């Protein structure tokens, strides 16, 4: 078949013999590329006619995504096959062959990246389409697939560029001499690439061990943050107020952090209520039970009311209630606070916290607040009988003598 194809191309070249030699050779190569294009379109149409709802749909989508790189590689193969009979000068033929080899290597790497993405997306859609899917399992697979896909893309890119550069003779000789020396130069390169390699291997380790997953809720720098994106070198964390933390991926292997959704998204929320000692605990406990049991955010698992602490002024009631996620737990706690505060204000005002001041008398019966030397200086009052007020209830004589005052006593 190859011989017949070359014979056909030779015949086509002879048909363009009336043109200049270089132009007729270029036209022959264009015909070879056109034949490859038509052949690729024919094969693509045949594959797209494959029936089926699941496997057939996957084959069709895979073909549509891969048709561009495969078509270009097919054109390269056909043109490269036609080069020996093209009649081009030797120098031009060698340069064209080298350019086709480099282009074929690059397109092969691109096709590998596209195929990896298609297969990983199909796997994620299959996991996401299950009716009995587990949120933790889904996020685990999403994290593993995305991290490994980015790592694979990076490795394919490095190998593709390396393979393309090795087709150049100077680069190949430099690479061989560098590997042969394997001395200080390799050490310098290794030290320079240490941060990249550290994060790269950390990403692979995170994909395997799963300390964090996509959409995990973690605590970092005192902020709630969701894992929005995991790349091969860093992690993007989305804070509740839409800020973003960009954290090196190695941070999650070298530092401790809180992951609130590692095994389960459910959390137990805690509400503290400070009340007076006269608070009717039976009524408060019953009202809290009604509030929690009627709340749609409660998952029906954990609920308790206890007097957790007390001091000289108030006692502290601790209420625990579980919810399906951290955000639902936050909203549930806010709802509990709002309703129990309204209940205490309207129906149990004696339970509201208050300040107390005790007025204690001394042993001798004197007022402690007025006792000399304790809290305030003594008050010097006039002796008894020095002044008894206005005489006969009138305003006159207010400064009468002591004798007159004593006579009215």
TrEMBL record:
Keyword Manganese: no
Subcellular location: Membrane
Signal peptide: none
Residue stretches of biased makeup (Gly residues): 392-409
Main location per the UniProt record: membrane
Pfam families (alphabetical): MS_channel_2nd (PF00924)
Membrane-spanning parts: 15-39, 70-88, 100-120, 174-197
Keywords per UniProt: Membrane, Transmembrane, Transmembrane helix
Record keyword Transmembrane helix present: yes
Superkingdom assignment: Bacteria
Annotated spans, Disordered: 374-409
Domain Mechanosensitive ion channel MscS span(s) in chain numbering: 196-262
InterPro entries: LSM_dom_sf, MscS_beta-dom_sf, MscS_channel_2nd
PANTHER family: INNER MEMBRANE PROTEIN, YNAI-RELATED MECHANOSENSITIVE ION CHANNEL
The protein's name in its UniProt record: Mechanosensitive ion channel family protein
Naturally occurring in which organism (per UniProt): Komagataeibacter medellinensis
Species classification: Bacteria, Pseudomonadati, Pseudomonadota, Alphaproteobacteria, Acetobacterales
């Amino acid at each position: 078949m190859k011989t017949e194809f070359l014979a056909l191309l030779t015949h086509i070249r002879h048909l363009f013999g009336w043109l200049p030699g270089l132009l007729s050779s270029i036209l022959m190569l264009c015909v070879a590329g056109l034949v490859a294009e038509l052949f690729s379109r024919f094969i693509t149409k045949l594959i797209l006619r494959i029936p089926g709802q699941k496997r057939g749909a996957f084959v069709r989508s895979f073909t549509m995504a891969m048709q561009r790189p495969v078509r270009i590689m097919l054109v390269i193969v056909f043109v490269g096959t036609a080069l020996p009979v093209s009649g081009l000068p030797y120098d031009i033929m060698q340069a064209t062959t080298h350019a086709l080899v480099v282009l074929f290597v690059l397109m092969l790497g691109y096709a590998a990246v596209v195929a990896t993405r298609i297969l990983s997306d199909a796997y994620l859609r299959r996991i996401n389409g299950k009716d009995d899917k587990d949120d933790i399992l889904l996020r685990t697979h999403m994290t593993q697939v995305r991290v490994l896909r980015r790592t694979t893309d990076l490795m394919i890119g490095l190998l593709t560029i390396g393979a393309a550069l090795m087709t150049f003779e100077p680069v190949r000789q430099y690479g061989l001499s560098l590997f042969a020396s394997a001395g200080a130069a390799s050490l310098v390169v290794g030290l320079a690439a240490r941060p990249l390699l550290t994060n790269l291997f950390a990403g692979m380790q995170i994909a395997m061990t799963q300390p964090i997953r996509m959409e995990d809720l973690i605590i970092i720098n005192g902020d709630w943050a969701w894992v929005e994106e995991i790349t091969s070198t860093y992690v993007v964390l989305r804070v509740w107020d839409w800020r973003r933390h960009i954290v090196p991926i190695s941070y999650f292997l070298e530092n401790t952090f809180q992951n609130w959704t590692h095994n389960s998204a459910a959390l137990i929320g805690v509400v503290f209520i400070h009340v007076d000692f006269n608070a009717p605990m039976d009524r408060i406990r019953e009202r809290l039970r009604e509030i929690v049991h009627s709340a749609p955010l409660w998952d029906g698992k954990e609920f308790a009311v206890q007097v957790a602490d007390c001091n000289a002024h108030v006692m502290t009631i601790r209420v625990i209630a579980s919810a399906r996620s951290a955000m639902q737990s936050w909203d549930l706690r806010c709802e509990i606070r709002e309703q129990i505060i309204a209940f205490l204000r309207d129906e149990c005002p004696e339970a509201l916290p208050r300040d107390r001041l005790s007025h204690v008398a001394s042993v001798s019966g004197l007022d402690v607040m007025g006792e000399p030397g304790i809290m305030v200086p003594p008050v010097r009052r006039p002796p008894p009988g020095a002044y008894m007020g206005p005489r006969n209830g009138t305003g006159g004589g207010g400064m009468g003598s002591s004798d007159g005052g004593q006579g009215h006593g």
